[in-house]
Structure formats: C-alpha cells, structure tokens
Predict the 3D structure of the following.
Amino acid sequence: MELRLPRFSGGPEDPSLGYLSIVGRREVLCFTLEDPERDEKIPGKTCIGIGRYQILLNTFGKNHDKYSKRFPDMHRGMLRLQDVPKFTGIDIHPGNKSADTKGCILVGETIDLNASGQKQVLESTKAYMKVYPIILAPLLAGEEVWIEVNHRW
C-alpha cells in the first residue's frame, strides 16, 4: 500500500496541516497535523522531512501500551515510520493540537483554528478508528506499507 501525505499549510512557527490518502484513490482518508517545519531539528517541535518512509507495527513502548488499553479490540501495534532522518519514534496517532504531536503525525476528521488562532485537527479518535484498520490490514497480510510526505504549497 502506498499512502500520500501532502502538506498544504505550515511554516517555521506554524503547525503543518496536510491530508492522508491512498495513492490511486481519490478520497481523503483524514486530515493531518504535525509540528512546524524548521530548517534545524528541534526535538519535539519539528515535523519530519519530506520523503518516503516505510510504516511498520511497533509493539513495545509507552505509546503501544497506551493505545492497547485505549483501543483493545483494534490495536495491534503503533503505526511507526521507519528510518526518518534525525527522528525516532514517529507514530501516526490521535491528537488535536501541535502540543500533542512531539514529532508524530496526528489524524483528524476536520481542521479548525482554536480560540487563540492555532491550527488543530478535530475528531481525532474517529479519524484514527477509521484510518488505523485500513493501514493495519496490509501490514498483517505481510504487505509493505509506505507513506510519501511532501508539500503542496
């Protein structure tokens, strides 16, 4: 499976918004939110670089433990991007605002500006419950899953 995540908004002090889709299909699976894009890596405050990354299931660590409890009927491991330069532990998971990402990719059904004008994604649990099984199925079937992150602006 090939996923695509084009970012359509963001900057050095502005969280990056994008959307997730499957290559070859016209539908948008969900919106995404990441940390701002910066020239220098700042731990927990910078989005990942443009590139193509393999997604594997990660079945250990605090995120895995947290989501195993939160989604016991669905969760089989974190959707983790592999070999991201200057980053480790990049997962796709629910969350609403830039403070929730710590470098990860958050998913949501809609996008919005909060009261202080910050970008956020909403209905993240709903989006995650929709997207996770779609990405999980080919992984469990032994197929490779890749995500291409790029810019649209």
